[in-house]
Amino acid sequence: MNVQWYPGHMTKAKRQMQEDIKLIDLIIELVDARVPLSSRNPDIDELGKNKSRLILLNKADLADERQNEAWKAFFQEKGFFVVKVDSRSGSGMKAIQNVIQEACKEKIERDRRRGIKNRPIRAMVAGIPNVGKSTFINTFAGKACTKTGNKPGVTKGKQWIRLNKGVELLDTPGILWPKFEDREVGIRLACVGSVKDDILNMEELSLNLIGFLREKYPGALKGRYGIEEEGSNVNLLEGIARARGCLKKGEELDYAKTAGILFEDFRSGRLGRITLEWV
Q1: Among 149, 187, 188, 199, which residue's Cα sits nearest to residue 170?
Q2: CATH number of the structural domain 201-268
Q3: Phi and psi, residue 171, nearest 5°
Q4: What's the distance, CA 133 to chain centroid?
Q5: What pLDDT is stored for residue 257 in this prediction?
């Protein structure tokens, strides 16, 4: 299975980010904690050279906690600041403000030496589609969120979001990169919903997910669907179809509907806390 998806608007969005990067002090990059490496756009590293970097392991509540800790250590060793968060519930949000100050300590100190006081830290929020950027901004900003309007030197119509006196955020569209060199990266991104389902063969994708779960999380499928995890991946998909009554006319099994149920259960956490990419 080969997954590729790069709509035309993403090229425009990348060009815009190249312009905006000159205006910011910090890149806050959201990644999906279930696929931390696969959900990192390599273009952001290229764009963000010489900028302070903060990685948010978002949807950490859906991911395996042992792997969350392992990935946090992995990125910290590479020089990133890292915070585990769940943007929907707000878990981990309180730690971010202090980490932003720590990540931009040199910039703040430079400003102080030049006699510049209280210049807000400008942070770009970046990440691939469906990683939770809007939810993060809304939760992080809360009711105090105010749009500060156009800034000098900023493209007309761009909105900065002022969190407080110390931090302003710039939202960016979700962008992928033109080609997934590694086939597995595309499959992982498809599994977590960062590639549109309607361009995918969801039945084939479900067999990939079943195979991974059997290897790394034995018992997860049995616990959810009451099926024995024996035979081929196709046998297990059939077992889920029967367990959930996914039938077409004439008692034929409806594999498309079954795949939809499997991915809904995985993406919502009903199969348990699962990380598809291990350190």
Answers
A1: 149
A2: 1.10.1580.10
A3: -80, 150
A4: 8
A5: 96
Q: Are strands 121-126 and 167-171 parallel, antiparallel or unpaired?
A: parallel
Class of domain 9-171: alpha beta
Task: Look up residue 241 and give its amino acid.
Answer: A
Output 41 or 84, whichever has higher pLDDT: 84
Cα separation, 169 vs 102, whole angstroms? 17
When mean pLDDT is compared over 91-95, 162-166, 271-275, the highest value belongs to: 271-275
Does the predicted TM-score (pTM) go above 0.70? yes
**Domain regions of the chain by residue span:** 9-171, 201-268
| DSSP letters spanning the chain | -------THHHHHHHHHHHHGGG-SEEEEEEETTSTTTTS-HHHHHHTTTSEEEEEEETGGGS-HHHHHHHHHHHHHTT-EEEE-BTTTTBTTHHHHHHHHHHTHHHHHHHHHTT--SPPEEEEEE--TTSSHHHHHHHHHGGG-EE----TTSPTT--EEE-SSSEEEEE------S--SSHHHHHHHHHHTSS-GGGS-HHHHHHHHHHHHHHHSTTHHHHHH-----S-HHHHHHHHHHHTT-B-GGG-B-HHHHHHHHHHHHHHTTT-S--SS--
Q: Which residue has the tokens 């034995």?
A: 218
Tokens (6 digits) for 178 = 């033109």
Instruction: List, in order, residues 6 or more apart from 5 with CB less than 8 Å away.
Output: 176, 195, 196, 199
Backbone angles phi, psi at 253, to 5 degrees: -70, 140
Query: Mean pLDDT lowest for which of 21-25, 99-103, 170-174, 219-223?
Result: 170-174
